[in-house]
Amino acid sequence: MNITRMMEWDIWGGAIIVFAGPYGMYLLMQWLKQLKRQSALSYNQAANLHNNQHQTLECSTDDTASIHTDTSDERHLLSISSLLHQKIDYIGNQLGHSSDLTVRYLTLSDHSARNSAILFINGLVDEKMISDFIISPVMQNRDSISSILSQQPEQLLSTLHESYIPICKGEMCPSAEYVVSKLLSGSVALLVDGVTETLVMDVKSSNGRNGEEPISEPLVRGPRIGFVESIEDNISILRIRAVDRNLTIQPYELGARNTTKAALVFIRDLANAELVAEVDRRIQTIDIDDLPESGYLEQLIEDDFLSPFPQMQNTERPDRVIAALLEGRIAILLDGTPFVLLAPVTFSMLLQSPEDYYERWLPSTLIRMLRYLAAFIAMFVPAIYISFVSFHHGMIPTKLAVSMAGTREGVPFPPIVEALMMEISIEILREAGLRLPKPVGQTVGLVGGLVIGQAAVEARIVSPIMVIVVALTAITSFAIPQYGAGMPIRILRFVAMFCAATFGLYGVLLFFIMLYTHIVRLHSFGIPYDSPTAPPQAAGFKDWKDFMIRVPLFLLKRRPRMNHPQDSVRQDPNPKPKG
Amino acid sequence: MAVRPSLICKWKLLFSLLIVISLITGCWDSQKIEDLTFAVGVGFDLVTEENSDQSVATASSKLKVTYQNLIPTQTMSSSSSSASTASESYHNITAIGDSVHELTRRVSILTKPISGEHVKVIVIGRKLAEKIELETLLNLFFRDEEFRESCLIFIAREEAARILSSSKIDIPSLLIKSISDNQYRSTKILPTFTLQKAISKLQSNSSFILQTVDVQEGNIIFSGGGIIDGKTHRLTNFFSPNEVQGLAWITGHKEGGLLTIRNQRKETLFIYEIARIKSNMVARVQGEQISFHIRVRSTGRISEDWRNLKTDPKHTKQLVHQSEAQVTAEVKTYLQNTINTMQRYKEDVANFDTTLRIQHPHIWHKVKGDWNRVFSTIPITYDVRIQIEDYGLENMGLSQD
Fold first, then answer.
1. Please, where in chain B does CATH 3.30.300.210 lie?
2. CA-CA distances (angstroms) from residue B202 to A209, A401, B135, B147, B293?
3. Of B27, B76, B120, the CB nearest to A407
4. Helical pair A361-390 and A464-478, crossing angle rounded to 10 deg
5. Cα A81 to Cα B283: distance, rounded to the nearest angstrom
6. Chain A within 8 Å of B32 (Cβ-Cβ)?
7. Per-domain residue ranges for chain A?
8. What is the pLDDT of residues B178-200, one digit of tens each?
9. Which CATH number describes the domain made up of B240-401?
10. Residue range A482-499, pLDDT digits in tens
11. Can you tell me the distance from the alpha carbon of A287 to that of A265, in angstroms, rounded to the nearest whole number?
């Protein structure tokens, strides 16, 4: 139609750049991924032989560690009475054969070996109490106990409890069902072959280091407990809060040289089986000499190593972990770190805090919306400032435009340089404040922020509005409830600024489209990263009840559909009328 | 470890191309905000003998354009020095030439580049508006995407340049804009007329009325309206403030405004504050004869009373009725006055043409070629109903009927 327009080079140039930018990014990413795949392949080929040997070694250690213990247990169990065997088996089944369920066999009678067993859950009980006050009195009085057992076996447990075991809380339980729930709350069970009842004694332990409130995730309202470095303690913290017998702890031994204990925690009848299998598969592929922190684990099993967004959530808060487990997600605990990994994760989860559920729904909704706003400001406000100041003067209200022009008068740098200088210095300040001891760190932040900002304005290196913009982005990025979640925003802010400096708001828009394309494509353990927004068909709009807003609790009757939980009902959908 | 070398080369090439491509764009079209001049008002005048000053005025020059630019406020300068600069917050730049765009370019050799995105008002001098077609004059503003179509157009009684330099403290353009925002408080101010409306009116060749502004004793005042003829697109006549007031009663859509009721001796009786005017125009066609009927309905209150009120509470109703009748009579005077003027000038500025076009399209097609002449002979009748719904006299014992 318009031939003269067709000939203009800058239109063509613009079109090419607009096409080449995203396509080039795509190609670059593909190339990097290909490099990763190829390096893995070549490594495999080169070290095939070594690997094989290594793996066989691995297998043998594995066998001794977990698999063979089960079979050998079974072999022994066959020799002892079927009643005892059935009971232990039943309890083990109920607890999903979790690694922390300990069975200690005793021999009470001269006629048959291992005819009695003590069951408890590791970490929940005080083991010294068990050995001092249960095992040693029983062993010392073995002869008399043996005679009671042979003469009147039904009286044995009550006699033991009344005459031999000096533990205050104890009771006789006829049902194994009840034994399981007592075990989960820190009791020890004494089972004797030929006796239908079980003696259950309370030997709850107190943990070594108490989990203090996590520094990285403080809350105004919420439990003041955090995870500690020991995996046993962490599991017991979880067990204390989550008394669900379906809470399953699947053990792993990771690290070829420094073998570290890890555990995959999920609720058996809740978490999606495919998800559990996928996480299990990925953990099995890990082959590394050492895992000092769960960040290693995260990077080794994440979906997309090129994405700026974290694909697993890390937390120090047990309440957050339990809430996640109850949403059908899984947790990975690693020994030696208080940081627990949660998967899958979506972008909206990164902007949620446990407090959203502890507070009433109206304040929570307000705060949650503020967080989304803060995320937007932290990512885009410097870019928008740059594009307004250097491209779209008409979009600023007249009076503001005039005063902005006035404040920029005498500033020697273009807006992008000005913004980069300030943003980089605030990021450095932030990093420096983090490394310094606490009292000094605050001073550095104050001195840096106030003095440098003020001096820079007075020296007319930057304009005062730029200082406002930078301060705003810094403060809003602190409003994001988790440190790791704020990282992508801090990175992408700079990209947005460059886009703004090149094309103005149009560039910001293009950047946003590219970013969103990436987010929509990204998956975290099979869950689309942008759930529940996209894809909308998967979950419908029902998950939106707990997305931008947080509806009253009584409306959250079902678990989030995006996690595909096995049991979707959280509250009875048809409650009985009150009163 | 063993990535094929050719592959690496290809990707390296692509990657470097990508970087180069994004770098060569530089900061495309970027313009720093401090390097711009923000124009808030534009004035046009005709160059006459007495105001054509100095050398730039050549024989063919006939247009003088005044750009009113804001001076950026220097917030960073210390408070003592800023006090002196505060006295002058704008400066006007004038250029003389043939075409508007050429003038804009001429202005750009006088000052920093002008940004037209913040232009709020366009003021056109009377003499220019009488001589040059408005469409020709506003051509640039229609075509150029930089100027907003929401800027308001005014006619200056005398010279636009004088209006734009009338005040030293306030910025005249912004003052004009804020006065025109007062239109809900007075019926003497016409509804705001934007560039967008001007385009549509000029395209459809219908007459319209623009607010006139004037300077009296250094103050900007709004005084009546200037009629732009639909045929010639030039300024033909002026409306007095009273006629503007009558126009408001014809067209309706007015909220707010006052009406002073006087007796025969020109003494003020009371003030009727308009809450709402609703007018309804009906075109009646009988054979070839077209006639209009305007139904005016208004509600309001008595906001101020100068009568000596010693009325019995019993007579409140009667008093209200009496006041309503007085208001009705006053409104009718205004209506008749405005209708007479319109027909005398042969200018339909009250959208009678639209009414006819919508209600009787066939008749409209017959008369539209010569509408202004036809309009001048059409009988226009009206009925007015005023309702005083609040007379604000509770404390005077008049509220109970």
1. 240-401
2. 84, 33, 7, 18, 26
3. B76
4. 150
5. 109
6. yes
7. 80-202, 231-345, 360-528
8. 888 877 777 788 888 898 888 88
9. 3.30.300.210
10. 888 889 999 999 999 998
11. 21
